[in-house]
Amino acid sequence: MGYKFATKAIHAGQHADPTTGAVMTPIFQTSTYQQAAPGDHKGYEYSRGTNPTRKALEDCVAALENGSHGLAFSSGMAATETVLKLLKPGDEVITGDDLYGGSYRIFTKVFAHYGIKFHFVDTSEPDHIAAKINDNTRLIWIETPTNPTLKLADIEAIGRVARAANVLFAVDNTFASPYLQNPLDLGADIVMHSVTKYIGGHSDVVMGALVVNDRELYDQLFFYYNACGGTPGPQDSFLVLRGIKTLHLRMKAHCENGRKVAEYLKKHPRIDRIYWPGFEDHPGHAVAKKQMRDFGGMVSIVLKDASLEDTFKVASSFKVFTLAESLGGVESLINHPATMTHGSIPKDVREKVGVVDNLIRISVGVEDIDDLLADLAQALG
Ligand SMILES: Cc1ncc(COP(=O)(O)O)c(C=O)c1O
């Protein structure tokens, strides 16, 4: 569809139901589909492989990422796992040293056991990636901005490194959402999303997605998708289709509130360090300006001279923000990465990249900004 983002968010992959005229895509709560004769069906055989509600969602997410094919999964980790299944023992992966804890865990505690080697580098320097490439390198996997320290990686520059070495290049686009950044346009082969976050947007569904622009790669991924079965149900697909219709409106509000929260916190005497790519002194600011349409609603802070106990006390004293795992929903969330989302990363490994005990990650929601700032003031006070 040649339409702009907001139109695609509302219409892509969807059309009125031909039997009833229903405007909203129905929840096709069926596991199987009638066949007139063996193999003679309407494109749907069994819902592990395809389901019409899920297909509408997959086409919508693919359109938002300017890709040709999308796949929806029962979680972001199931999507990540499916990409890793393209690999064989002896293959090597180059990835970031500052990643979502669950990605670090699946790399080091699951796929490393199948003979796949992972190299963790600072992906804000494309040269660090190039330096690790060898004949066994099969995949480059990055997050940008990273979770939780919001480091930027230059997708176009890494795409050139990947193409020169004929290596698959995947981008976890969860933190940006397709509204802010489209990695396929910048040279990535695969975009991955934890749909649970901004795309779903209402903290009521766990889901993942992959989008590609290549039929052959899609077929390979679909093989593992259907063979292994990490597929979401039609109810969840419907909820996300509904959530996606306001993605552009929500993202605008997240970015606006994110900026105000970051500007407020930057001047706060209890803050030692703040990570938000919209600041000109953020090391990734130029890359963020080049490849993102705005700076997002994620802000991380390091509290000044705060012990773990002091940090817990601050994290537990919010009234509007909720202390909880996850991000990207309409409600503002506070997270303590060291013990929550990144608890599966050993202390020495996480501290090297700044995931210290006094780091707090904030997912700025779309509530009234005055209430958010007042809550920050009282919790930090
Ligand atoms: C950047 C990032 N990637 C992947 C995931 C995993 O997604 P899910 O929780 O939907 O399995 C998360 C979850 O927090 C995440 O933040």
Automatic annotation (TrEMBL):
What keywords is this UniProt entry annotated with?
Answer: Pyridoxal phosphate
Q: Which InterPro entries does this UniProt record tie to the protein?
A: Cys/Met-Metab_PyrdxlP-dep_enz, PyrdxlP-dep_Trfase, PyrdxlP-dep_Trfase_major, PyrdxlP-dep_Trfase_small
UniProt GO cellular component terms? cytoplasm
Q: What is the required cofactor set for this protein?
A: pyridoxal 5'-phosphate
Cell wall biogenesis/degradation in keyword set = no
**Keyword Repeat annotated:** no
Q: Which residues carry this modification: N6-(pyridoxal phosphate)lysine?
A: K197
The record's GO molecular-function terms, alphabetically, read: cystathionine gamma-lyase activity; cystathionine gamma-synthase activity; pyridoxal phosphate binding
Provide a GO biological process annotation: cysteine biosynthetic process via cystathionine
Family as reported in the entry's similarity comment: Belongs to the trans-sulfuration enzymes family.
NCBIfam families named in the record: PRK07811.1
UniProt-recorded name of the protein = Cystathionine beta-lyase
Organism expressing this protein natively: Parapedobacter pyrenivorans
